[in-house]
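Hi U.,

Before I forget, here's the chain from the pilot set. I'm dumping it here mostly so it's searchable later in email.
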Amino acid sequence: MKPLATCEKYVTNSPIRKLFNMAAGLDDVIPFTVGEPDFSTPDYIVKAAVKSLEDGSAHHYPPNAGINALRDAVSRETEKTHGFKLKKIENAMITCGGMEALSLAFHVLVDPGDEVIVGDPSYCNYTRMIAIQHAVPVFVPCYAKDDFAFDLESFKKAITPKTKAVIINSPANPTGGIAGKKALEEIAKLCVEHDLYVFSDEVYNSLVYDGNEAVSIATFPGMQERTVVINSFSKKYAMCGWRVGYAIAREDIVDAMSRFQENIASGVNAAAQYAAVEALTGPQDDFKEMLRQYTVRRNLVVEEFNKIPGLKCFAPQGTFYAFIDVSGTGMDGNEFAEDLLKKQHVIVVPGDTFGTEGKKYVRLVFATSEERIREGIRRIGLYMADRMA
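Structure:
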């Protein structure tokens, strides 16, 4: 038989799967692994989807780029949050989650052999998506001292004549770090100088704490036309299963992405799109309550973990992830995660899942109940007491 396509070997399973396999057969396991809200989608959003099915609005193929009502709504929302003007639907593309928005943007803008700058650590799917394009990921370290934003000197050195684009994720998975205005301004200047595109993954931009602000690089001079802003309804509105995301970009980029969409997924589930319209335009009380609870959980995690000798928890400025330095144990993140699972039945994600700079960390998801978080921390405290004795 002829071999599979060469890109197949780049699409590997996440190391998280190894821990889930190890957990099989164990009792009373507490997983802090999956990056999705533990809340249900608010009722008013669900009712909008049901209505579209009952009145027939969602019974037919939607346009490739999304229904006009949703494209208009995300354009208006982006104008409000980013402070720039758009040509409404011409600058908005509705996708099957934020991941398809990024994938379509890659198809349109990245050719084989192009170099794409990406943070280390960063969301592990970025690297795989770059590889699928037969492009080259160029890793730039992100350190806790810089709130896990790009190290600017390393960023400058990473730019070559082959560099085509940069991925920025702020607030960031897995670290919870937010890129500050000053750092983004310097990166923006370099992108303009070297004519680089930017994929700005902003799916966590509403989940911020301590008065922090998630500024988009698209708002800096010369950046709107070279940035693809990517967002999703999954995190803010607890709509992970609905699979609705979007991209905001220059008209020719949106037009090209729409043509790719026609040949990949045709379009996004119509009922889910009507639900997303209601999510953006309806009351925001449910989101405010979710954010309040995330804030309580975040503060609990930071306070309690930093009481445990041998562990150091970076205070996430956004997202629902905590990045915990376990180097004080004498183990790396993989060793720590596997030993913790065996002895206390708690699953955390090894930091090197997200890059070599994450080797001494583990990621913990606090998008779960306060009761479960407290029990998990209690077990980790027992584990550390025994380890450090």
